[in-house]
Amino acid sequence: MKFMKKYLFQIILTAALTLGFRFTAMAAQIHGNVDEIHEDSISGWAWDASNPDVPLTVQVSVTDRSGNLVFQQTAEASIQRDDVSASGYGSGACGFLVPVDWTGLPDGSYTVLVTTADQVIGGTQQYYKGQASLRSLGIFKTTGYCPCQRCSEGWGRSTSTGAIATANHTIAVDPNVIPYGTKVMINGVVYTAEDKGGGVKGNHIDIFYNTHGETQAQGTQYAEVFVVEA
């Protein structure tokens, strides 16, 4: 009887582990990102590698600082995105754009969450309505990287959040110091934390550039970093 109980437990454990692996594998097939949050819309892309020709349905939710849901809408991710296709994500017909009327909401900080198939796309994003303020994080070391093999080790413009890296926008950070989606100002330019790097730890930011020559010109510098917040 003890043998049967032990055998049954092993079967249940094996089944649970197998099921968990399958769910993980399924979730890993979905790629996407929230690219832009404008004063009148939220846009991005979502693509299922396991079913590449079927558009995903995304749900966009916005909550205020107190956690109250102030906006929610679904949309089909089927807009053509040539930049996504060029990065290796299917035909590129996986973009979405959801109109949002921010004018009826009071000034302040809002959290934007995009989900599809019970998976969050691009992490949580912050939108600041009204006059934003700057909060200093102190002095950081800043370096540069680009899509070349030497800098990105074959990842090109792909990032750890699913965003497609763009110059004057994307930075790699230590997420324990600067969470993904945070907007920071460095030397007057506002960037978004969308990536991380093996050598980026603590007070260190890696700025994305289009060419390796630009990364060399950047070199290693030190600058005061400000969080852009409401």
UniProtKB/TrEMBL annotation:
Signal peptide from the UniProt entry: 1-27
Keywords recorded for this protein, A-Z: Signal
InterPro entries for the chain: 3D_dom, 3D_YorM, Resuscitation_pf_RpfB, RlpA-like_sf
GO terms classed as biological process: peptidoglycan turnover
Residue ranges of domain 3D in the record: 170-228
GO cellular component, one term: outer membrane
Domain of life of the source: Bacteria
GO terms assigned for molecular function: hydrolase activity, hydrolyzing O-glycosyl compounds
Protein name: 3D domain-containing protein
Species the sequence originates in: Candidatus Caccovicinus merdipullorum
Lineage of the organism: Bacteria, Bacillati, Bacillota, Clostridia, Eubacteriales
